[in-house]
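Q: what sequence does this backbone want?
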């Protein structure tokens, strides 16, 4: 009897680095969640996940070590479903969940999908979460699943490395940069994470952003930068710029339907002098200038190309994996010091009409860590935008200042947390 052939594939250009630099302190895990209008039935969720993983075979994999690189291999086991009992975005160990690079948990009416970044990016993770949710609702509420908009909502199984497909070596260029201001403050106990979800009226926020000639991402990035400036930066001796890392979905710039990672970054570098007091409008103007100069196809192509150039370097390829692990772990600790924090916007989520009555909202969380101690993640659904802070700092002055600022603009906002901080609203 012939043994079943094991399918394997290379990691994409971004995914290569995560296994080498990740650990319990720096997990490289993000979370997307869906909030339903009914409590979760664990047995039905297990069935929904089993259907999704057999359909979405690109997620049915585990991470393996090669001599030069990690690679992905078909996983013959089933993924597990558990009730949420810990903080989000925890390190996904290869010996848990039968080796899968994601965890599915639930709590009351919420389904969570925690994803190790070597598997995919946020936009693809949301689609996989929707696939699980649709399956769940089909079973639980006897919904006829025929006629789903597969083009919009269902993933392909295309696992091409779109970085290499669109790489132009001649246009690759890494700009000179300087280290960033790092947030100060006492930390929570190791492993603990403070969560603050800000539920914001989307139409009112859109109107306010428009009045300031800014996009929603620009406006919220400026609000966060201003809060960092007023609550943290002003009380430090640092003269380094506040740098906000903005992940960029490359599928908006290149034709691709890959389920592998395909994103890049831009950095909004806000140089604030200690010699003067900055208003919010001045901070917003600085942010808009950064977006205008850096969020262009030409600049994005340069940044993407520079990152690919490292991963395709002939001499780096020849270094054995155990040495790569050591060298990249050391260098990545330094690279992270070039960012104050990250703000990632997944944009607006659309769902099939037949499921809308069952879905209340979506959430998106990033893992905070020793350098970027407080991060922001944005997702929108219906007429609500959710800006979520994840923090390892004891105080939540930045979160409170953010809430107070939005409230003063006459924008409807309320908050929910995970119990680490007192209620803000």
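A:
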């Amino acid at each position: 009897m012939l043994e079943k052939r094991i399918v394997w594939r290379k990691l994409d250009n971004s995914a290569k680095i995560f296994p080498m630099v990740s650990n319990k302190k720096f997990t490289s895990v993000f979370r997307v969640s869906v909030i339903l209008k009914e409590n979760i039935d664990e047995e039905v969720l297990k069935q929904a996940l089993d259907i999704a993983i057999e359909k979405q075979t690109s997620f049915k994999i585990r991470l393996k070590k090669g001599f030069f690189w990690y690679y992905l291999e078909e996983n013959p086991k089933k993924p597990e479903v558990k009730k949420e009992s810990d903080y989000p975005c925890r390190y996904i160990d290869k010996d848990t969940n039968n080796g899968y690079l994601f965890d599915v948990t639930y709590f009351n009416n919420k389904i969570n999908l925690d994803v190790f970044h070597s598997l995919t990016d946020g936009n693809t993770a949301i689609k996989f979460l929707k696939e699980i949710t649709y399956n769940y609702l089909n079973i639980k509420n006897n919904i006829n699943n025929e006629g789903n908009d597969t083009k919009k909502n269902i993933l392909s199984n295309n696992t091409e490395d779109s970085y290499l497909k669109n790489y132009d070596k001649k246009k690759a260029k890494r700009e000179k940069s300087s280290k960033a201001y790092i947030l100060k403050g006492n930390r929570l106990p190791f492993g603990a994470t403070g969560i603050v979800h800000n539920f914001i009226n989307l139409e009112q926020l859109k109107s306010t952003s428009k009045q300031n000639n800014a996009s929603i991402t620009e406006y919220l990035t400026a609000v966060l930068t201003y809060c960092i400036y007023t609550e943290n930066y002003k009380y430090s001796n640092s003269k380094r710029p506040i740098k906000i890392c903005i992940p960029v979905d490359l599928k908006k710039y290149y034709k691709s339907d890959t389920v592998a990672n395909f994103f890049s970054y831009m950095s909004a570098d806000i140089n604030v002098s200690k010699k003067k007091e900055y208003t919010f409008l001045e901070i917003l103007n600085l942010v808009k200038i950064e977006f205008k100069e850096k969020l262009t196809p030409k600049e994005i192509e340069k940044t993407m190309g520079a990152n690919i150039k490292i991963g395709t370097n002939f001499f780096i390829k020849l270094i054995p994996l155990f040495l790569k692990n050591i060298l990249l772990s050391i260098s990545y600790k330094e690279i992270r010091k070039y960012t104050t924090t990250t703000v990632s916007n997944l944009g607006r989520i659309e769902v099939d009409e037949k499921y809308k009555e069952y879905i209340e909202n979506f959430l998106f969380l990033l893992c905070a860590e020793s350098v970027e101690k407080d991060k922001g993640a944005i997702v929108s659904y219906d007429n609500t935008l959710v800006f979520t802070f994840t923090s390892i700092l004891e105080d939540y002055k930045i979160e409170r200042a953010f809430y107070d600022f939005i409230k003063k603009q006459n924008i409807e906002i309320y908050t929910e947390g995970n119990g680490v901080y007192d209620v803000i609203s």
